[in-house]
Amino acid sequence: MDMSFSPEEMAFRDEVRKFIADNYPEELRAKGRGDMTKEEILMWHKILAKKGWAAPHWPVEYGGTGWTITQRYIWNEECARAETTPLLPFGLSMVGPVIFTYGNEEQKKRFLPGILAGEDWWCQGYSEPGAGSDLASLRTKAVREGDHYIINGSKTWTTLAQHADWMFCLAKTDPDAKAQDAISFFLIDMNTPGITVRPIITMDGGHEVNEVFLEDVKVPAENLIGEENKGWTYAKFLLGNERSGIAGVARSKKAIERLKNIAGSELVDGTPLLDQEDFATKIAEVEVDLTALEFTELRTLAAESKGQGPGPESSILKIKGTEIQQRITELTLEAVGNYGFVYAPHGHERTGNEYVPGPEYAAGQSQNYFNMRKTAIYGGSNEIQHNIIAKMVLGL
Ligand SMILES: Cc1cc2nc3c(=O)[nH]c(=O)nc-3n(C[C@H](O)[C@H](O)[C@H](O)COP(=O)(O)OP(=O)(O)OC[C@H]3O[C@@H](n4cnc5c(N)ncnc54)[C@H](O)[C@@H]3O)c2cc1C
To answer: What's this model's pTM, rounded to 2 decimal places?
Structure first.
């Protein structure tokens, strides 16, 4: 694969870099996602939507940019370089592609514009107590009554459901069929009576995930995607996209750069940590892994551009991508030592007036380390991804 950029691609890179520099909101720079209001989280999305750049991976007919793989690569690199807040994946990368692939014309017209514009916030109603890895055993039920379904059940770990306008939700529509032939895929307005969202506070102190209870929730039949009892197919298609998106190569590159800066500032017996053979080797190992992952991701993107959607190989991207993300947080915490245990709500060190001991870059690193443990669990745990690779890729 030739990775050198043509003059046109260099010009594109300059255009993108300038656009980000001129348009990325200053007020977002000092904040981590944990501190942002709903409006702030959507701010960058809306700016990109106006420019027509919110969904580079969508087909042009639905609002995609029509960029080549190299242009998308450049785009991701430039966003990571400028540390822009990542756009939420639930609409753009998860339910959007399900709607334009399996939805009917009415659904495309009704839902895609709101997703593209960043007007509608979506959440993912897949997992339930007792149905995570074994998702097919979910127990939420939908019963057809005239032109509606009545849905009862509960969902858990629902990321950012506290802000959501809509939820895409799996529910059983055939109590007698085997699990994979019994599930349907619904789009549910979160303002429908009977929905309760209850926060789950995670060990880093953040409110990122929730429980969602559904009690006699009336959902119009036109909000069913595709065919009744065929939801498992759409659900798996969505998971393939979700897992590829988790890899986060460009952002890990930026995180390694940040780690190197920290290790260059931290001294051990008067010598920068970065120059200590043992620590330098650890960084080199993670960089080698990341380069290998980058090329694997590019191969997947190249296949995707030829119309081959992400298959079970997205599990490889998910495992390696999250292992690398976690490794970087481990090395960062190791680099900053005890100062990493200073509690600092995201952005606190820059906005608060309380004394924070140690260098600014150290505060909050333990929270970051703890928060990133989630990456090996969400999107389907890494153990389950190993099982998928064994079965679907290696044929074991
Ligand atoms: C931060 C966070 C955000 C999330 N956001 C969402 C969301 O927005 N929407 C949503 O629907 N879900 C969400 N999830 C849920 C996530 O998809 C599940 O947590 C995940 O699928 C694991 O399911 P579980 O938690 O029920 O664990 P379990 O399935 O109970 O697994 C427990 C452990 O056993 C292992 N295990 C289970 N079965 C096997 C097996 N067959 N072989 C080997 N090992 C196995 C697992 O790897 C895991 O280590 C989120 C999770 C987290 C942590």
So the answer is: 0.93
